[in-house]
Amino acid sequence: MRLTKTLLIAFAVCTAVVPVAQAAEGAAKNVIVMISDGAGINTWHAASYYRHGGLGHEAYDAFDVKLFASTHPLNTSKEPTGTDEGAVTFDSKAIWNASPVDTVFEGAIGNYPGYFAGYDYIRADITDSAAAATALATGHKTYNNAINWSNTDARLKHIGEYAVESGRALGVITSVQWSHATPAGFLAHNRSRNDYVGIGKEIVDSGLASVVMGSGHPYFDKNGGAIEPADDKAFQYVGGRDTWDRLKSGATDYKLIETKADFEALADGSLDLSGKTKVLGTVENNATLQFNRSGVAAGNLLANQPDLPTMTRGALNVVSQDPDGFFLMVEGGAVDWAAHANNLPRLIEEQIDFNLAVEAVVEWVEKNSSWDETLVIVTTDHGNGLLQGPDSDKVAYSDIVSQGAGALPLVRWHNDNHTRELVPVYAKGNGADYFTSAAKAEPGLAAYHVPAESQVYIDNTDVFRASARAFGLEVEG
């Protein structure tokens, strides 16, 4: 295949470069972290009910480690404070407090009765995706809005940098804009997640990653229709007009791909990279792969968009060419956007797309690698929407109700924003046992009907520690 031949030649030329950090013997060659953004436990359940009619049928259900994670930020400031003032504390026991309350949560799209003290607790002091991504990628808690930036106003080193220093490749893909908070957390550094131009420019100019994919195309709208950009703001998600022009002209390290056909060719190994070894894929959409298309129902997908499984296979084809291994982050970013909108059909649609990407990863590991060689972590950065069962106004944390495969489950939304509920973590492969050694007991998780060994939780910063430990790397801090 032309892809394989081109990349192997390029990597052979680079073998004289000595990596800064050497992996320990017995370390994992590859680490893959998959993030379904904004997916509380019932997001996973709703998709499984719709797809299979029951639980226990998804690829991650067969993983060796199944537990939960806390996600709270260091503080809820939008900029570095330099002090401990306003630090968020977390008490997992407070989540399950079923004492009735007479409160109202004011959301962006509506108001939600409080019902129970536990609901109020997990709707308060929430993380944003930037602080959560920073925790997952660096092992450091920080203020909301930070992209690998500390509360003391200093740059933080992320797992992608450690991976590249160890001689491995880095890949980051998402179903939203590739300069958005979660992908940026594994690629860049910035005091503010909203500096999309600066983030996008750093991603391209650093050349750190071997593959980056997502949306944010300046010449297409949310329905995948061709447009003429109205102004320079249309180019914000791709690092600004100048960065985009350099990508288009081939004046960067990256082969730019845009069409669905090229994403599919990358996935099947037939894409000609024109002598380059790195790929930046920007799908023909300025918003998301699918979620932001017109309407609110599922189905009638945009025909010119690749799906997340295709992008995942393409990314694996690139990063796996590095003989020393790789770190890959895959994000189902629009799951979060659907939860913000309380849109159950599209929430399920986005989560299923993510679950299919997990299947693509498992298939790749078992066909091209092994679980002794690769660690896969499947999780989320935080909950969103506080999705519960239809009678969860009367019984705290009551189950959503399956209506069978192909039918929407019965649910009740209690929020249209992020939460600090304990969220699922699934892991399998070399290094997965770190999570069980780091976990703390939380019997309240029995409310989710998980076995006793899963009634434990880690902190989201442990995802970084597990990744670095699996790689056998010495890390800062």
UniProtKB/TrEMBL annotation:
Zn(2+) binds at residues 336, 340, 381-382. Transmembrane segments: none annotated. Pfam families: Alk_phosphatase. PROSITE patterns: ALKALINE_PHOSPHATASE. The keyword Signal applies. Gene3D superfamilies: Alkaline Phosphatase, subunit A. GO terms for molecular function: alkaline phosphatase activity; metal ion binding. SMART domains: alkPPc. Keywords: Hydrolase, Magnesium, Metal-binding, Phosphoprotein, Signal, Zinc. Mg(2+) binds at residues 180, 182, 331. Residues 1-23 form the signal peptide. InterPro entries: Alkaline_phosphatase, Alkaline_phosphatase_AS, Alkaline_phosphatase_core_sf. This is Alkaline phosphatase.
